[in-house]
Design goal:
mainly alpha
Length: 350
């Protein structure tokens, strides 16, 4: 769903992160089949690493805006608003995905188990995000009661602790307390960085000269090459768990630097319309990339790099169309069944 109050730079980061997530998922199956030391192996491994900024970026963008709005301290108002925009559409998507899974022959127990632990069509991110949303009003209350310096310093210490914690952790459910609290560190850091960027124009210009965003992006890429070097040397721990893989120390620093770089950019290019659909694109790509790659691998049995590239482009386009149709569907429900007004007028929110 679109939003009238948008930030061009962070909208671009949101869009790039969406494409990176699609690329990450399409690239993933090739990690286990790329043997030897050929260019394809290096490329597949690097794609897996260079796209990992995507999930931290999504979380930091959410934290940037949700924790910047003082009105979100109102529990009922925030839960009413955020659950309508995120929870209900995801519930409908899960219902549609469950029907598709059953039609494909999956057992109902298996489907329910996947839904229960949050490992269902790569929708684990949404489960984790719900946990962050539940904690948002509490974080704002704490933020209001401490100094800005303490809030800022504690957020980065929290991120370091999360990075260390994830090294020793594995989780069965995507909404496990450990998973949610570790991603909460990205959520709060995103807010800290965003609010630091909302300074006077003169200070912002000085910071841009001192910390050129393009230099920060180059440093981030360099850190990703370092991550690749460790991966090639056999250090794979941060790659074995889907919830841990975004907390490799180099990936954490690279992701934060990328986010800082985009808050310093002053983009005039407007990608707001497409960025407004990224939530639905993320939901629907989990189905389309499997269908599209299934067809492409039959047409082109070789050439994995070509398949990854063309598969990403096609998946993004089809997912964007699906997102647009789904948005129209929600607007239809809002008009014909008065869904929005009925939701906001529930006794629970009064």
């Amino acid at each position: 769903m679109t939003n009238n109050k948008r930030n061009n730079s962070l909208d671009l980061l949101r869009l790039l992160s969406t494409i990176a997530v699609i690329l990450l998922h399409i690239n993933a199956p090739y990690l286990s089949v790329s043997d030897g030391c050929g260019i394809s192996r290096y490329a597949v491994l690097f794609v897996n690493i260079i796209t990992r900024f995507s999930v931290p970026s999504f979380v930091m963008i959410s934290g940037a805006f949700n924790l910047h709005n003082e009105k979100n301290r109102n529990f009922k108002e925030f839960y009413c608003k955020s659950f309508y925009k995120t929870f209900l559409p995801v519930i409908v998507a899960i219902f549609l995905f469950a029907i598709l899974s059953l039609v494909k022959g999956n057992q109902i127990i298996s489907v329910l188990y996947s839904i229960g632990i949050g490992d269902f069509y790569n929708l684990w991110f949404m489960y984790m995000l719900f946990g962050l949303y539940l904690l948002t009003p509490f974080i704002l209350i704490v933020k209001k009661s401490v100094s800005k310096t303490l809030y800022r310093n504690a957020s980065f210490i929290f991120l370091c602790i999360a990075c260390i914690s994830q090294f020793f952790s594995t989780y069965r459910a995507s909404y496990a307390i450990g998973v949610v609290f570790c991603y909460l560190s990205y959520y709060i850091v995103g807010n800290v960085i965003y609010e630091e960027s909302l300074t006077t124009k003169d200070i912002r210009e000085n910071n841009r000269r001192r910390f050129n965003p393009f230099i920060l992006l180059l440093v981030s890429i360099g850190l990703m090459f370092i991550t690749l070097a460790f991966r090639l040397k056999g250090f794979v721990y941060y790659s074995v768990d889907p919830y841990v893989s975004f907390f490799s120390p180099t990936i954490v620093v690279a992701s934060v630097l990328i986010f800082i770089a985009f808050t310093k950019l002053n983009l005039k290019t407007n990608v707001n319309k497409i960025a407004g659909f990224t939530f639905y694109i993320y939901i629907f790509h989990t189905i389309w990339h499997r269908i599209i790659m299934g067809v492409l691998t039959k047409i082109f049995p070789t050439g994995e790099l070509f398949l990854i590239l063309i598969g990403t482009v096609l998946t993004f386009i089809v997912s964007l169309v699906s997102a647009y149709v789904y948005d129209l569907f929600w607007r239809f429900l809002e008009v014909s069944l008065d869904v929005k007004n009925k939701w906001y007028n529930l006794k629970a929110w009064k």
